[in-house]
Amino acid sequence: MKISGYGYVRNGFQYGVPFLESIQSVLPICDEFIAVVGDSTDGTREAIENLNSPKIKIVDTIWDDNLKQHGKIFAQQSNIGLEHVTGDWVFHIQADEVIHENDLPKILENIKKYNDNLIVEGFLQPFLHFWGDYNHIRNSRAVHKNEIRIFKNNSEIRSYIDSQGFRKFKSNEGYLNGSERGEKLKVLRLDAPIYHYNSVRSTKKMTLKANNFQYYYGQKDQKLAEAPKEEYNYHTVDRVGKFLGTHPKVMTQAIADHDFVFEHDKSQAIWDKKDKLVQPLEDLLKIRIGEYKNYILLKNIK
Q1: pLDDT digit string (tens) for 144-173?
Q2: What's 53's DSSP letter?
Q3: Radius of gyration of the chain (CA)
Q4: Is the pTM of this model over 0.85?
């Protein structure tokens, strides 16, 4: 049984994402790691090479800025990685996501346990969305609670819409022209959190990320080439809570280097109207109302 890890990145240093830590966090249980590296100008490719791991294979790509509707460029880069993996299982880790070393044995144990189970196609993992600094987590209904990152290798699987989730498609043509909606993967819940550091970076790099993320979703007309002078206002977030756990060891230096201390000024919080109404009810019932589920959750599987 072989496990293939893969991820994609472009100008990781410029955007302030822990792409090296991301790769290193899953490398111990992967037999290979496909690093899809976009045309970077900040030393991203060289840094991945300098990890000096025989497991890492770099695939060079050129980003097509015409693919800027609904995050299609992210799906394209993800699918390039899928085309190069050779393992029985695939572990997709994004450049701002990290796995805790304490969870690697559990992940490996479950992969081995369900390797021969024809029903189980992958695993659903919870997300910890860090915000502002490494001591706060965004915990409102505006962020996704779970997503698929580990699944059995299948030539029919493609990134769904952007690169957040995956589905099976009968034909590549149907996938590309949108005539197929795809089939959701059947997955089991796996309590091995994804440490999502998407919103922990300098205020200027966060402004760059926010603008260009919207650009690739067709919501901004212009892409910024470098971080602007204006600083991102982290305080407009709807809600955060304190993080009381431990971070992955690979993040030790990044945490030590982070010089922005965040304490939420709740008076600046901006809530979506619907979220503000529904959130108290969700807190009371301890369920997510109307949660988007791009998967079929299996139960009573031994």
Answers
A1: 999 999 999 999 999 998 888 999 999 999
A2: -
A3: 19
A4: yes
CA distance 221 to 68: 10
Q: What DSSP designation does 18 have?
A: -
Alpha-carbon gap, residue 4 to 33, rounded angstroms? 6
| Number of Cβ within a 10 Å radius of residue 261 | 8
The CA angle 265-269-270, to the nearest 5 degrees, is 165
Would you put residue 83 in left (φ > 0), alpha (ψ -120 to 50) or beta?
Answer: alpha
- Residue 197 CB contacts under 8 Å (≥ 6 apart), including other chains: 17, 18, 96, 97, 98, 130, 134, 251
Distance CA 100, CA 131 (A): 18
Q: What angle do CA 294, 244, 260 make, to 5 degrees?
A: 90
95 and 197 Cβ atoms separated by less than 8 Å: no
Cα–Cα dist 7/97, whole Å: 10
- Reply yes or no on whether the pLDDT at 222 is more than 80: no
Q: How far apart, in Å, are the Cα atoms of 102 and each of 99, 105, 207?
A: 9, 7, 33
